[in-house]
Write a structure and sequence with these properties.
One of its GO terms (molecular function) is pyruvate dehydrogenase (acetyl-transferring) activity. Its EC number is 1.2.4.1. InterPro entries: PDC_E1_N (IPR035807), PDH/Transketolase (IPR051157), PDH_E1 (IPR004660), PDH_E1_M (IPR041621), THDP-binding (IPR029061), Transketo_C/PFOR_II (IPR009014), Transketolase-like_C_2 (IPR055152), Transketolase_N (IPR005474). The chain is α/β, with parallel strands linked by helices. The strands form 5 sheets. The protein has a 5-stranded parallel beta sheet, with helices on both faces. Strand 12, helix 27 and strand 13 (about 705-710) form a beta-alpha-beta unit. Helix 3 (about 85-105) runs antiparallel to helix 4 (about 120-135), helix 3 (about 85-105) crosses helix 5 (about 155-165) and helix 29 crosses helix 33 (about 880-890). It is elongated and about 110 Å long.
């Protein structure tokens, strides 16, 4: 007999914990309960059991929680609603879609193309989607606003096949599957990619685990919009279609508590339990459906299992002693997968043959009838009942665990096979068998003419089936998926809103983090624009000085604040409200990025622009959640990402894992991210203003970007905006600072003669004051005149330079463009020395575009705990290190004494970490 290894207990074992001291009485109770079910039905039985359990609790009779139920459908057959559609019509065009989806992928493997694709996922999940398309998924023209559907990434061919039947895509489009440049104009992306198909897909999902997180926070964002009075989303539902293998991703399960805690009954997960991962079974020795049932129920979700199709109802009805249910419970997934790769006779012997009673249950069934005992995910009635129950359930999110067969209907070479995920082509015999199974009116001659290019099938837009399909979509509000980018008008803040950034901090010191927060506070006060700002902070508001928002903007909590706050008497007391503006996901960067994505795409999802501003420890941004930011870029999210406590040496007491020396490099790998490293508050003001103009000013060719600003916790005197500021240079990546900066005598360089050696010092962020101090030391100690440049964006300078190179490469007949950094430094003299609080690769991005000798200083290696002065001296990035490196470059050019660098090393005790310039270590 086919068996797996030891299978863990899958039931709670309610009756196994205590001895049965009166078996006769037990039998009478069970007989009475069975009679209740038979005479009054399962709904009455459920009511009675729940009341008894409640009474048991009141009488202090302990009953363990039931986390896992029998391996049967949650909804009893007698409680299933009547199916509302024409099932036969729906079955016919569902078959056509399954054919076209598979043929599209198959044709994409023809000689000379061979771009891959996935046949089996949609083949097994077609019923799950079609029940939704025909009766549940509401389009954007629905009076309630429409649903948001996160489609399983590998099932994308099915969505294209449906769009073909609806007339949204042509055969030429289907033949452009995965050929987005060579078939441009008629191309289809491999998976749901909104950036690649901006009027079709809404949500990128194929990076496993990102979809579940984003779906949860999309449901939260819907409620947030409603409770803040921005849009009525009460009649919108979020659906997320996931794989059972995908549920192994920590991200897939890690945020379930939010949906339960906030009672997000506008959210339904549909987990396609085909029992297979990409390489083999999900739980060969166990039962993934039971595992997920326990997990979701324990997380506070409503759980609906759809395990068996209607053909099993009569067998289960005859199973009075529970022998069949027992075998269902005990059979591991590895065996279930094998059964669907064999035949009816095999199932009779190895499954039903496990006991005389179950073997007798199917004695009057043929092997073919046994083979046609379907799994629940292939039964319209069972799936419809589950969807209807999910949408009507109140108070909790719902997960529907649906058992299917991967590769269903594709034939014995595909169904349930371990390798089915990688199989992309059908043999000629496979094509014929699949055609026969689906009853597609295509002849052998048509298939044999060119097995690489079997024909698609469409009965014509006037056929009764297609008219029925289109009528169902009209009734539900239009086609799904569909993305629209039209949105409500945005009144951007006036110039006065940025005044606080331009005037500096006077005689007081303020870190750039605080300069940003002050600017944000004024932007939020704007009557028209302020309500669209969504601050998102993962449990570090006080660190960043954002606790000032607590009593005014308040923290979003749909349940309000139903407790007496311990700090209620303080000015900055912690305040929660259903109408709160701040999103506080807790210590949860992944959830924060999901919230950022939902808010940053509200302009398209809901037609209501929101401007998310996610503030976090810079070290724990792109390093921890880079994949989520990549998905945010795909979804064309707009907003601001603020990497606070940036730099490798500013957060001196926290140590290695808090020391960010590389986030600008990580951010630079995302094409949708515009990275800035501002030094002063007035720079931040111009960058934020330019970002808002780009996103919602209506004139930029590409508004779908995220601005990443690194800000610091090191207080300095924030200078007022200088007169004649080169704003264009600031925004494009670099501009020259005037003489007489903070702490610098006006005549430090002016006293030097015109023949003095010259140098160019490039710095960004917190390193700009070091460069200014280095300029003073070079002038006073070595007679060198240096210019200081604030490099606001190394990444944007590099992108500009690369674009110029590309222009020269492709169009040599045109006038060669000059990179902006080359233009800025063109008329300068002397070597160029760059310094940042990041690793050397950050300033090294622009090396090829610098028109002079170029040297970089940086904090390579791991961070550590120490004073700022010691850390900077250790990494050789402080002001005196800049001086020595500049002298070395000048000496190499023969412009200063060859001994000057050695003398400077001795003078400043450069090799002594305790001899660095004084610096504050406050955090």
């Amino acid at each position: 007999m086919l068996t797996g290894e030891n299978t863990q207990d899958i039931l709670s074992g309610l009756g196994a914990q205590l001895p049965d001291r009166d078996p006769e009485e037990t039998a009478e109770w069970i007989e009475s309960f069975d009679a209740l079910v038979q005479e009054r039905g399962t709904e009455r039985a459920q009511f009675m059991v729940r009341n008894i359990l409640q009474r048991a609790g009141a009488q202090s009779v302990g009953v363990p929680m039931v986390t896992t139920t029998d391996y049967v459908n949650t909804i009893p057959a007698d409680q299933e609603p009547e199916y509302p559609g024409d099932e036969e019509t729906e079955r016919r065009y569902r078959a056509w879609m399954r054919w076209n989806a598979a043929i599209m992928v198959h044709r994409a493997q023809r000689p000379g193309i061979g771009v891959g694709g996935h046949i089996s996922t949609y083949a097994g999940a077609a019923t799950l989607y079609e029940v939704g398309f025909n009766h549940f998924f509401r389009g954007k023209d629905h009076h309630g606003g429409g649903d948001q559907v996160f489609f399983q990434g590998h099932a994308s061919p099915g969505m294209y096949a449906r769009a073909f039947m609806e007339g949204r895509l042509s055969e030429e489009d289907l033949d452009g599957f995965r050929q987005e440049k060579s078939h441009e104009g008629h191309a289809l992306s491999s998976y749901p990619h909104p950036r690649l198909m901006p009027s079709f897909w809404e949500f990128p999902t194929v990076s496993m685990g990102i979809g579940p997180m984003n779906a949860i926070y999309q449901a939260q964002s819907n409620r947030y919009l409603e409770q803040r009075g921005i849009k009525d989303t009460s009649d919108q539902h979020v659906w997320a279609f996931l794989g059972d293998g995908e549920m192994d991703e920590p991200e897939s399960r890690g945020l379930l508590q939010l949906a339960a805690n906030e009672n997000l009954d506008n959210l339904t997960f549909v987990v396609n339990c085909n029992l297979q991962r990409l390489d083999g079974p999900v739980r060969g020795n166990g039962k993934i459906v039971q595992e997920l049932e326990a997990f979701f129920r324990g997380a506070g979700w409503n759980v609906i299992k759809v395990v068996w199709g209607r053909q099993w109802d009569s067998l289960l009805g005859k199973d009075r002693e529970g022998h069949l249910v027992r075998i269902m419970n005990e059979t591991p997934d590895g065996d279930y997968q094998t059964y669907k790769a064999e035949d009816g006779g095999f199932v009779r012997e190895h499954f039903f043959g496990k006991s005389p009673e179950t073997k007798e249950l199917v004695a009057d069934l043929t092997d073919e009838q046994i083979w046609n005992l379907k799994r629940g995910g292939h039964d319209y009635h069972k799936v419809y009942a589950a969807y209807k129950a999910a949408t009507e359930f109140k108070g909790k999110p719902t997960v529907i665990l649906v058992k299917t067969v991967k590769g269903y209907g594709l034939g014995s070479h595909f169904e349930g096979r371990n390798a089915t995920h990688q199989m992309k082509k059908l043999t000629l015999q496979d094509l014929k068998d699949f055609r026969d199974h689906l009853r597609i009116p295509i002849t052998d001659e048509q298939l044999e003419a060119n097995p690489y290019l079997p024909p698609y099938y469409h009965p014509g837009m006037d056929s009764p089936e297609i008219q029925y399909l289109l009528e169902r979509r009209r009734a539900l509000g239009g086609s799904v998926p569909e993305r629209r980018s039209r949105h409500a008008e945005v009144s951007l803040p006036p110039s006065s809103a940025y005044a606080v950034a331009a005037r500096g901090s006077g005689k007081q010191q303020a870190a750039t983090t605080m300069a940003f927060v002050r600017l944000l506070k004024d932007l939020m006060r704007d009557k028209e624009f302020g309500r669209r700002i969504v601050p998102i902070v993962p449990d570090e508001s006080r660190t960043f000085g954002m606790d000032a928002f607590f009593p005014t903007a308040k923290i979003y909590n749909p349940k309000g604040q139903n407790y007496l706050s311990v700090d209620r008497d303080l000015v900055l007391a912690y305040k929660e409200s259903p109408a709160g503006q701040l999103i506080h996901p807790g210590i949860n960067e992944a959830g924060a990025v999901a919230a950022f994505t939902a808010a940053g795409t509200a302009y398209a999802t809901h037609g209501e622009p929101l401007v998310p501003i996610y503030v976090f420890y810079s070290m724990f941004g792109f390093q921890r959640t880079g994949d989520s930011f990549w998905a945010a870029g795909d979804q064309m999210t707009r907003g601001f990402i603020i990497g606070a406590t940036a730099g490798r040496t500013t957060l001196t007491g926290e140590g290695l894992q808090h020391a960010d020396g590389h986030s600008p490099i990580l951010a630079s790998t995302n094409p949708a991210v515009i990275t800035y490293d501002p030094a002063y508050g007035y720079e931040i003001g111009h960058i934020v203003r330019a970002g808002l103009e780009r996103m919602y000013g209506g004139s930029h060719a590409d508004p779908n970007v995220m601005y990443y600003l690194t800000v610091y916790n090191e207080p300095i005197v924030q200078p007022a905006e200088p007169e004649g500021l080169d704003v264009d240079g600031l925004l494009r990546g670099m501009y020259r600072l005037p003489l007489g900066g903070p702490g610098e005598p006006d005549d430090a360089v002016a006293r030097l003669s015109g023949n003095a050696p010259r140098a160019q010092l490039l710095a960004s962020g917190v390193a700009v004051p070091w460069a200014i101090e280095a300029r003073r030391l070079l002038a006073e100690d070595w007679g060198v005149a240096a210019d200081v440049w604030s490099v606001t964006s190394w990444t944007e300078l590099r992108r500009d330079g690369l674009a110029a190179e590309e222009q020269m490469f492709l169009y040599p007949e045109t006038e060669a463009p000059v990179p902006f950094v080359t233009q800025q430094l063109a008329d300068t003299q002397g070597p160029v020395v760059a310094v940042t609080d990041y690793m050397k690769s950050v300033p090294d991005q622009i090396r090829q575009f610098v028109p002079s000798d170029y040297a970089v200083l940086g904090a390579d290696g791991f961070g550590f705990s120490d004073t700022r002065a010691a850390a900077r001296r250790f990494f050789k990035i402080d002001s005196t290190s800049v001086v020595v490196r500049t002298l070395q470059e000048l000496a190499r050019r023969g412009e200063v004494s060859a001994d000057a660098p050695r003398e400077a090393i001795a003078k400043y005790r450069l090799l002594d970490v305790n001899a660095g310039p004084e610096a504050s270590s406050d955090e």
